[in-house]
């Protein structure tokens, strides 16, 4: 939907009347910043930003958008750097910034271990609140920005590393302003009553589970969500193994799978390649010499590995228990298993605490937000950054084939293969970082082409992406079967008939 | 970020440095979410990213800045929260300092602002003048309508006499108790001595008790921090030059193991003397030497190892990280370790990365924003239900104390008390709950974030 100039002013007049001047920002400098992102496709300036302070405000905004035919683009904290930041799908949309005034922690139930939050609540804010309450509960955090929003991440199918890693899976009960302006409560919250004591504890209430409709979609604005929390364990001990060769990935995946299928290891495994770890510690030392035209050399990678004490692949995981001593036998069993082939070098918890990139892993296993991994974004100058997030089955041969294919695509484009496989029992998500100089037109084009080529290659191997940068939503939806696309459009038509919520996001509407 | 300076502009080393810093910013925007002013106003020009752009334009254009630019740069707290968050490590502190100097040289402020800034720059760094000014201010408080409006907000900040404990230290040597382990100089400071003399007394007692000869060097006054962050770089250099000269004499005479600073705002500046004099051939080396010796008092005490407390007082202590300490010096672990070693229960304060609004002279120059931040911080502090609030910078102590309505103590006052010193005067007459039994549990295994974790969390399921 293209915005019509004539519709905009009456829309903002209506919002101004309802939300007051604090609820709107149309300052050109602010709009320019909201349009910025880090992806290859360029910036997209909105026509305004509105700041709801409540679900009722969000409803007012959506209803006004319907009346005036104005497209909205909701963001929570806007920290989805590399996937879109606060930038809308198309220029001319109105940003609904939920992070400014809807950032309340509505409830923490310490007995049933859940919290209820608004979209602006960040990992850091939730963590601070839990610490304030005595640090008895732990939330699962990402290794991304501490100011990232919990709801936004869960709805984009984001994940962490502890047993509660699946942020959507461990969310329970939503309040949503639908595209048609109605407010919907999901799960047990659907009960037409006032004392909803089971809203954020039960996922299996009467009727279809609608919650999933609001992940990676544009059918409504989620204004409240329940998040489950884990009792903080008395002791957390991490373990790490460095492997010397790129093709060791096959062996690593085979080692990790049974440990996760059995849940012997409670955390996910972070299986990071050398650049994923070393990249957060400084700029590519060969970038300036090659003008960014070549991938870093094998010698350069080896030197970085030696300098930072990591491997071509480094595996990290952790155990939880009553004390460090009680966890030693479990760590020994894992150590024996990983060291059987003679290739792995064991890195103990204490040693890892002195290695910056591994401290990031310890923080994530401990539910502590940290900024350490953000350093990856300065691997190349110029501020370009986008993420490619497919996954592989937990099969060593397949995962290794993916590694070879994707590494080659990076190298064909003169970029640096930077990846972390986050391994569960059956599936590993591959967080591929494409860092590029956005101010260099040739490099920007190469990054764009690299992303598209990898998407096509993994699709050829039978795998779809998980999360995706905003620039590629339409492209990925085009990779889906026709009936899936039609079903998504049909739901959009039912819940947001005028198409006011983020038209084009996730390739819908 | 692309910049557009001329060759002639870049020949100026100060502009060349600013250019280098500007080029590192790539507008990721992580800084916006941790910038106190942006969080309050949601105005891009009140964010580090927006300010960097304003600075770029101001320096590229040269000459007088536009009033809007001055407004938004003045509103920056220099809390440096953005530097902790920035993914590409933009050296914001040196950029904003350069911008403040440019404004000072090229912008004529309205007279009330000029008067207030001149007053602060010429009074606060001089303890005797500050002492007299406070007396005058208290008299003026009786008839506030007679006070120029520009000064009224500052007047409201003037503490009641009972909250003052002025003790201006004379230069001298305070010998170690027992065997000498280190010989250290203490920065006695300027405004701090007038507002709370017990900080220096407690620090000196503590250091002596832990085997230090403590030197208060003649010739050291203000470190230059206050004027530096007002854009008065020349004044700051005069103060810093005197301090460096005095400490260099000590180093050359009998040597110094450390220069101990107990106001973290000052510590951040002293540790950065190398940069302040980088382009001064005669001063660069001594400035670097002094900066290399500078330690926050908590750092030196961790090095020395805190003596076991005579009688642990397990009060709940909410610890506030001063911005200059957490973002400027990255010293966050030491004070917590020491307070725990002294037997206190240490609690983190939510949103601890946020400034309390003190920020040197900020609460005097930007009272409205400072009030919002001060109240926000006080609310977070109160939410932890503490018995005592502690921090490591006099500015934060005064600011938080004002909005909290109860005294805030310096970390060294508590450490001194726990290891045999007197009860801090600020606690006199303050009712405290009976402290819990000293914690006998082993240290938590996870990175220490608060009491909790460790065995206390073992509810039988692990």
TrEMBL record, chain A:
Protein name as it appears in the record: FAD-binding oxidoreductase
Stored InterPro entries: Cytok_DH_C_sf, FAD-bd_PCMH, FAD-bd_PCMH-like_sf, FAD-bd_PCMH_sub1, FAD-bd_PCMH_sub2, FAD-linked_Oxase-like_C, Oxid_FAD_bind_N, Vanillyl_alc_oxidase_C-sub2
FAD-binding PCMH-type domain sequence ranges: 42-232
A Pfam entry, by short name: FAD_binding_4
Superkingdom to which the source organism belongs: Bacteria
Presence of the UniProt keyword Zinc in the record: no
Disordered, as annotated region: 23-45
Compositionally biased intervals (Basic and acidic residues): 24-35
The entry's keywords: FAD, Flavoprotein
Naturally occurring in which organism (per UniProt): Microvirga splendida
TrEMBL record, chain B:
Source taxonomy: Bacteria, Pseudomonadati, Pseudomonadota, Alphaproteobacteria, Hyphomicrobiales
Free-text function comment from the UniProt entry: Component of a complex that catalyzes the oxidation of glycolate to glyoxylate.
PROSITE patterns in alphabetical order: 4FE4S_FER_2
Cofactor note (record): Binds 2 [4Fe-4S] clusters.
Designated name of the protein: Glycolate oxidase iron-sulfur subunit
EC class (word): oxidoreductase
Primary gene name: glcF
GO molecular function, one term: glycolate dehydrogenase activity
Keywords: 4Fe-4S, Electron transport, Iron, Iron-sulfur, Metal-binding, Oxidoreductase, Repeat, Transport
Positions of the UniProt region annotated as Disordered: 431-452
The EC number(s) this enzyme carries: 1.1.99.14
SUPFAM superfamilies per record: alpha-helical ferredoxin
Catalytic reaction(s) noted: (R)-lactate + A = pyruvate + AH2; glycolate + A = glyoxylate + AH2
InterPro entries assigned to the protein according to its UniProt record, in alphabetical order: 4Fe4S_Fe-S-bd, Cys_rich_dom, Glc_ox_4Fe-4S, Helical_ferredxn
Top-rank taxon, per record: Bacteria
Cofactor: [4Fe-4S] cluster
Domain 4Fe-4S ferredoxin-type: 14-45
């Amino acid at each position: 939907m293209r915005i019509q100039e004539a519709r905009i002013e009456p829309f903002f007049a209506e919002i101004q009347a309802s939300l007051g001047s604090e609820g709107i920002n149309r300052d050109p400098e602010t709009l320019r910043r909201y349009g910025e992102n880090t992806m290859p496709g360029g910036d997209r300036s909105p026509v305004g930003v509105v700041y709801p302070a409540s679900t009722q405000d969000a409803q007012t905004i959506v209803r006004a958008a319907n009346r005036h035919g104005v497209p909205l683009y909701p963001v929570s904290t806007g920290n989805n750097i590399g996937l879109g930041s606060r930038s809308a799908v198309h220029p001319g949309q109105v940003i609904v910034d939920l992070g400014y005034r809807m950032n309340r922690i509505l409830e923490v139930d310490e007995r049933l271990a859940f919290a209820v939050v608004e979209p602006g609540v960040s990992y850091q804010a939730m963590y601070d609140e839990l610490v304030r309450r005595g640090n008895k509960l732990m939330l699962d955090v990402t290794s991304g920005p501490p100011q990232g929003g919990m709801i936004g991440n869960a709805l984009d199918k984001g994940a962490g590393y502890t047993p509660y890693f699946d942020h959507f899976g461990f969310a329970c009960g939503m309040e949503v302003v639908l595209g048609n302006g109605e407010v919907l409560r999901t799960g047990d919250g659907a009960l037409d009553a006032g004392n909803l004591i089971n809203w954020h504890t039960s996922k299996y209430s009467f009727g279809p589970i609608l919650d999933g409709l609001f992940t990676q979609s544009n059918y409504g604005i989620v204004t409240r969500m329940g998040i489950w929390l884990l009792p903080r364990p008395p002791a957390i001990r991490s373990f790490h193994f460095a492997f010397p060769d790129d093709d060791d990935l096959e062996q690593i995946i085979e080692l990790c799978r049974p440990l996760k299928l059995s849940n012997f290891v409670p955390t996910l495994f972070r299986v990071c390649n050398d650049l994923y770890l070393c990249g957060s510690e400084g700029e590519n030392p060969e970038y300036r010499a090659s003008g960014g035209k070549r991938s870093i050399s094998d010698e350069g990678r080896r030197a970085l590995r030696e300098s930072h004490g990591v491997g071509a692949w480094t595996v990290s995981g952790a155990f939880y228990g009553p004390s460090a001593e009680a966890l030693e036998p479990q760590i020994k069993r894992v150590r024996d298993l990983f060291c059987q082939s003679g290739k792995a070098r064991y890195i103990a918890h204490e040693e890892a605490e002195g290695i910056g990139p591994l401290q990031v892993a310890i923080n994530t296993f401990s539910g502590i937000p940290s900024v350490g991994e953000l350093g990856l974004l300065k691997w190349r100058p110029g501020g370009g950054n986008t993420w490619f997030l497919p996954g592989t089955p937990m099969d060593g041969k397949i995962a290794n084939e993916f590694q070879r294919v994707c590494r080659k695509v990076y190298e064909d484009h003169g970029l640096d293969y930077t990846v972390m496989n986050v391994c569960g029992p059956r599936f590993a998500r591959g967080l591929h970082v494409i860092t590029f100089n956005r101010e260099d037109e040739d490099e920007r084009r190469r990054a764009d082409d690299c992303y598209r080529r990898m998407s096509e290659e993994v699709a050829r191997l039978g795998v779809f992406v998980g999360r995706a940068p905003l620039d590629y939503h339409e492209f990925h939806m085009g990779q889906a079967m026709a009936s899936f696309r039609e079903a998504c459009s049909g739901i959009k038509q039912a819940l947001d008939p005028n198409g006011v919520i983020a038209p084009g996001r996730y390739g819908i509407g | 970020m692309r910049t557009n300076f001329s060759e002639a502009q870049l020949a100026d080393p100060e502009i060349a440095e600013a250019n280098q810093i500007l080029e590192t910013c790539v507008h990721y925007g992580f800084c916006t979410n941790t910038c106190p002013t942006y969080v309050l106003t949601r105005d891009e020009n009140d964010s580090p990213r927006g300010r960097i752009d304003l600075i770029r334009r101001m320096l590229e254009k040269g000459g007088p800045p536009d009033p809007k630019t001055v407004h938004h740069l003045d509103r920056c707290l220099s809390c440096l929260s953005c530097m902790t968050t920035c993914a590409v490590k933009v050296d914001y502190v040196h950029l904003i300092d350069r911008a403040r100097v440019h404004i000072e040289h090229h912008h004529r402020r309205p007279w009330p602002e000029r008067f207030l800034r001149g007053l602060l720059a010429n009074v606060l760094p001089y303890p005797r003048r500050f002492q007299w000014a406070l007396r005058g201010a208290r008299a003026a408080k009786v008839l506030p309508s007679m006070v120029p409006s520009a000064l009224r907000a500052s007047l409201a900040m003037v503490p009641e006499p009972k909250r003052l404990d002025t003790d201006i230290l004379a230069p001298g040597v305070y010998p170690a108790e027992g065997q000498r382990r280190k010989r250290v100089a203490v920065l006695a400071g300027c405004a701090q001595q007038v507002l709370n003399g017990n900080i220096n007394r407690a620090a000196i007692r503590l250091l002596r008790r832990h085997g230090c000869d403590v030197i208060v060097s003649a010739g050291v006054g203000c470190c230059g921090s206050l004027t530096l962050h007002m854009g008065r770089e020349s004044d700051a250099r005069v103060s810093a030059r005197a301090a460096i000269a005095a400490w260099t004499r000590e180093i050359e005479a009998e040597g110094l193991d450390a220069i101990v600073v107990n106001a973290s705002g000052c510590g951040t500046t002293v540790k950065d003397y190398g940069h302040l004099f980088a382009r001064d051939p005669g001063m660069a080396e001594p400035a670097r030497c002094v900066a290399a010796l500078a330690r926050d008092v908590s750092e030196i005490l961790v090095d020395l190892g805190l003596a076991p407390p005579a009688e642990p007082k397990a009060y709940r202590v909410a610890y506030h990280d001063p911005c200059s300490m957490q973002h400027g010096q990255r010293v966050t672990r030491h004070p917590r370790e020491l307070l725990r070693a002294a037997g206190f229960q240490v609690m983190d304060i939510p949103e601890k990365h946020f400034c309390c609004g003190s920020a040197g002279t900020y609460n005097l120059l930007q009272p409205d924003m400072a009030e919002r931040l001060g109240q926000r911080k006080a609310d977070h502090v109160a939410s932890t239900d503490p018995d005592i609030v502690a921090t490591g910078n006099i500015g934060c102590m005064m600011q938080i104390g004002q909005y909290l309505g109860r005294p805030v103590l310096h970390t060294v006052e508590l450490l001194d008390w726990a290891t045999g010193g007197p009860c801090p005067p600020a606690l006199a007459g303050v009712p405290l709950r009976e402290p819990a039994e000293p914690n006998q549990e082993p240290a938590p295994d996870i990175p220490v974030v608060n009491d909790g974790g460790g065995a206390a969390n073992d509810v039988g399921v692990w």
